[in-house]
Amino acid sequence: MSRQQPFRVHEVTVQPGTRDRIDIPVARLTTGEWTHLQVEVMHGTGPGPCLWLSGAIHGDELDGVEIIRQVLDRVAPGEISGTLMAVPVVNVFGFASENRYLPDRRDLNRSFPGGARGSMASRLAKLFMAEVVSRCGYGIDFHCGSNGRDNYPHVRGDMEDEDTRRMALAFGAPVCIHGRGPEGSLRRASVKAGARVIVYEGGEAQRFTPAAIEAGVEGTLRVMGALGLMEASGDGERAEPSIEARKTRWVRAGRSGICRLRVALGEKVRKGQKLGVISDTMGQESKNVLASVGGIVIGRRINPLVHLGEAVVHIAEA
Predict the structure, then answer these.
(1) Cα(171)–Cα(212) distance, integer angstroms
(2) Which of 15, 85, 75, 24 is nearest to 50 (CA)?
(3) CA nearest neighbour of 164 among 202, 185, 194
(4) CA angle at residue 212 from 248 to 66, to 5 degrees?
(5) Tell me, what's the pLDDT at 240?
(6) Quick one: pLDDT at residue 1?
(7) Which residue positions in the chain have pLDDT lower than 70?
(8) Which of 206, 172, 254 is nearest to 62 (CA)?
(9) Rounded distance, CA 114 to CA 186, Å?
(10) For position 29, what pLDDT does the model report?
C-alpha cells in the first residue's frame, strides 16, 4: 500500500492525518486591509481522491456555508483516505456585504475560469481554479434559490458522464437534473479542467433552511463514501431513489400584481394545472398561473409581488 504524501496549498504543507486552515490573499479592501479566501484542508492518513466543497459563490446564499461547517464537524482526518478541501465562502466580497454579486455587480458564477488581468470576479475565479480546482478530481458546489425564490433540494450535473452520475445518485437528493452548466459557471469550467462536479440546490438566500441543510450534509457524506474518501454508511441511504429529469421550465407571471401560489415544493403537477393566481391589490382582475409542463416543482417564488414575465414556479419535467 502506497504511503500518503503531504498536501501543499499556497506555501502551506498539510501533513497526513491533520487538518489546517489556509488564508489565501485575494485583494485589499478600500480600507487597506487584505481579504482572504479561507480554505480548510483535511488531509487523510491514506491516499485517495481529492474533493472540494464550495459555498457562497453567490454571497447571499448561506445554506452551503452551514452545510460545509456541519460536514467538517462530522469528519476527522484520521477517518478519511484522500483529501477534503472546504471553502465555505468563495465570494468573500458579496458575503461580507450580504450581496449576491461582487462590488462591481458581476456574477462570480459567470466569470470562470477567470483571468489574471480582468475584473475582480475574473481574478477571484482564476485564484479559485488555481488553488482549489487544480488540486481536486471532484467537487460539490452549493447553491440556494435567489431573488425571493425557494428551491426544493436537487442536484445538477452531467448525468451522461459515468463518474458524475455516480456522484449525483449517491448524493440522494429527491431530484437529479442533467446539465453541463452555463458558460462561465464554476461547474462548466471545472469539468473542462478535468474535474467531476455536481451542484446542490436547496433552500433560499439570506437565511438558513434547515431541511435543505440536512439534505445537503447527508448527501455530501454519501458522496464521500461513494468516492472512497471515507467508509460508506448504510445508515445514510435514502429510502427512495432520486427522480431524474432532463429539462426544467419556468412558469412566468402573465401580469404584474400580487401572486398567491397554491403549490408546494416537491409537489407533482400536470400540464395545465392551476398553480396559483395573480391579481391586483383588491383581489380583482386576476390571472391564473398555469403549469406549462408536467413534472415536479423544484422552485417557487416566496415574494408575492411580481412583475409581468417574472419567474414564479420552476418545474423539472419528469
Answers:
(1) 13
(2) 85
(3) 194
(4) 125
(5) 79
(6) 47
(7) 1-2, 233-239
(8) 206
(9) 10
(10) 85
